Amino acid sequence: MNRWEGLDEFVAVAECGQFSAAAERLGLSTSQVSRQVARLEERLQSRLFYRSTRRVALTEAGQTFLQHCQRLQDAREEALRAVSDLGAEPKGLLRMTCAVAYGERFIVPLVNQFMAQHPQLRLEIELSNRPLDLLHEGLDLAIRLGRLQDSRLVATRLAPRVMYLCAAPDYLQRYGRPHSLSELSRHNCLIGSSDHWNFAEGGREAQVRVQGNWRCNSGEAVLDAALRGFGLCQLPDYYVLEHLRSGALISLLEQHRPPNTAVWAVYPQQRLLSPKVRQLVEYLKQGLAQRPEYS
Fold first, then answer.
1. Range 163-256 has CATH code 3.30.70.360
2. Nearest to 224 by CA among 211, 239, 241
């Protein structure tokens, strides 16, 4: 005997409150539904419904059993959708957001390549340095940098993100090289979006408030000022690795480099991602891994 027999009929009766309404929902006869539920009760050795001439009501055992059956139905439908979605073509509207500079440099080119491969997809990208609320704004996806704060979101790691403290050789020749976090107060620090820089000290994260005569909320602008020898900067790897390799910048206080953060794809909690979001996230992950900044 199939141990699953009667579960769909039981749930339909519980949700509809009548055998006839459940039969209509399932496209079966009332007698078929009644027979399946009776067989289910017999197998369970437990009464699931109190029956009257007009309506039925769940027993205590029925209420407990219903919760489990509904979860089983959800899991079954999710499994079926997961398989059918494997080859599904991304289509419809996808709304996403990303920080401006990172989006322009890395994400939008990859998204455009993805769009070229999937002409049924429509896209809206909002580049903003303000972290938008995905649920409130109705967004399907966000690309976030650093550490995540919103526990309502599910995250997939797309790429590493290592922070470097560095300066141009010219600056270091004139002002010396810092050998400890306490020495940062003696240096001109090029401040980006925050005057609190993150480091590692004694196995823990530490924040140091820095100061200087230059500030701009653009990573590219901070990089340009650092290359000109204006002061120290703390920037992610994708800004500075090329210049560290060429010697145009020198990495400093490497023993205090903050724990690696990351580039994340985040999306609202849901049991199954739509094909458009799932396939784009995987495409971004593969595309970023091929960039020289992450090699």
1. no
2. 239
Provide CATH code, domain 7-85: 1.10.10.10
Nearest of 201, 199, 171 to residue 186 by alpha carbon: 171
Q: pTM (2 decimals)?
A: 0.66
Question: Domain 92-161+261-294 maps to which CATH number in 3.40.190.10, 3.40.50.10540, 3.40.640.10, 2.40.50.140?
Answer: 3.40.190.10
The one-letter amino acid code at 83 reads V
Q: What is the largest CA-CA distance in the chain?
A: 95
Length in residues, the chain: 295
Interatomic CA distance for residues 150 and 124, integer angstroms? 22
* 3-state DSSP assignment of residue 214: strand
| pLDDT tens sequence across 38-83 | 999 999 999 999 988 777 899 999 999 998 988 888 777 766 766 6
167 secondary structure, DSSP code = E
List alpha helices for 17-91, DSSP H: 19-26, 30-44, 60-85
pLDDT tens, 164-187? Answer: 999 999 999 999 999 999 999 999
Q: 210 with 191: CB under 8 angstroms?
A: yes
CATH topology of 7-85 equal to that of 163-256? no
- Residue 260 DSSP symbol: P
Structure tokens at 80: 């079926």
